[in-house]
Amino acid sequence: MATYKVVITDQVFPTTDLEEALLGEIDASLEVADGTLEDVLARGRDADGLLTTYFPITEETVRGLERCQIIARYGIGVDNVDIAAANAAGMTVTNVPDYSVEEVSAHALAMLLALLRKLPEADTLVRSGGWSIDSLRPLRRLSTLTVGLVGFGRISRRLAESLTTLGMTVVCYDPFIEPGEGIPPLLGLEELLRISDAVSLHAPLTSETGGLIGAKELALMPNHAVLVNTSRGPLVVLDDLLDALRAGEIRAAALDVFEQEPLDAGRIEGVPGLLASPHMAYYSEEALSESQRKASTQIVKVLTGQAPDYPVKPLD
Fold it and tell me: Do 90 and 132 belong to one domain?
C-alpha cells in the first residue's frame, strides 16, 4: 500500500505520466476521478492531496476531504477553489502562477495586433473578392496608440515590454501596486478607459472584479477602441459587450475566455468586430508540461513537510 494517495479531480492533459513519476518518488499513488462531485468525494475522502484544473472545490467538497493536506491547481487562477474553507480545514492551496506567462502575453499581443491592424476584416475582404483598402480605413500607426492594461502582474508586465518595444504608450490600472521604476503611469479605471485606444484585461476574478467591464465602462471607451480579454471570462459582462459591438460603441473585441464555457456559439453569431478563441491562450506543449510538473511538485513538498513554492491565500 502506498504511503500517500493523490487524486486528480478532472483530467485535462494527454497523459499523467509526469505526475505519476514525480509522485512515485515519495511513494504516492495517483487516481483520476471522472470530474463529478460524487466520484471526487468517493476517491478524495481518504486522499492526502488533490490536483485540480476546473473542478469546483466548494466548502461542501472540502468537508468531504478527511485527510487532505493540499489542493494544488494546475493553472494560475484559483476562483474555482474556496480557499478560505480549505485553509480553515488546515489545507494548503497552491497554484502555478508563472507557467504560461509567455503564452498568454503572446496571445494577448497577437489579438491586440490583429484588431488594431484589422486583420479579420482584411481576411473577409480578400475572401469576398475585394482588394481596395478603403473599407479598412483608418489604420493608425502603432507608435501613436495608447494601450491600457487592467492589472499589472506577470503576464501584463511581459505584454507591456512587447508593446513598449513596438513604440506604443502603456498605461495601467492596478489598485494593488505603487508607482515606481518600471511601472507605467497608474490611472483610475475610468480615466484609463477614456484615453486608451486598446484595453487588455489581466486581473484575477474576485467578488470585486466580476463584471468589471460592463455597459457603463464600455460607454467610456472611444468608439474606435478595442478590448482584449485573455484573463477571466466573468470580468466582462458578455451581453453588454455584444450590445456595444452591435451599436458601434467600441470597434472590436477579442475574447479567449467567456462567462460560461464552452461558449454557446449562437450568442456571438453575426456580432461585428468580435474575434474569439477557445480558452487557449495558456497553451503550448511546454506550458502544459511545466504546469503538470510544478503542480505535482507542490504536492510532493507539502506531503513531505516542505514549504510550497506557490501558497495561495483568499483573494477577497
Answer: no
CA gap 198, 248 in Å, rounded: 15
- For residue 40, tell me if it sits in a domain: yes
CA-CA distance, 255 to 236, in Å (whole number)? 10
Are 169 and 223 part of one and the same domain? yes
The dihedral sign for the CA sequence 11, 14, 20, 22? negative
Residue 109 in grid coordinates? 499581443
Inter-residue contact 171 to 184 (CB < 8 Å): yes
Query: Which domain covers residue 206, as residue numbers?
Result: 101-276
Q: What angle, rounded to 10 degrees, do the helices at 285-303 and 17-24 form? A: 30
State the Cα–Cα distance between residues 293 and 283, nearest whole angstrom.
15
Can you tell me the distance from the alpha carbon of 154 to that of 98, in angstroms, rounded to the nearest whole number?
Answer: 7
pLDDT digit string, tens, across residues 141-183? 999 999 999 999 999 999 999 999 999 999 999 999 999 999 9
> For residue 76, which phi and psi values (nearest 5 degrees)?
-90, -55
pLDDT at 315 (0 to 100): 61
Number of domains composing the chain:
2
Tell me the catalytic residues.
232, 261, 279
Q: Find the radius of gyration of the CA atoms of the chain.
A: 22
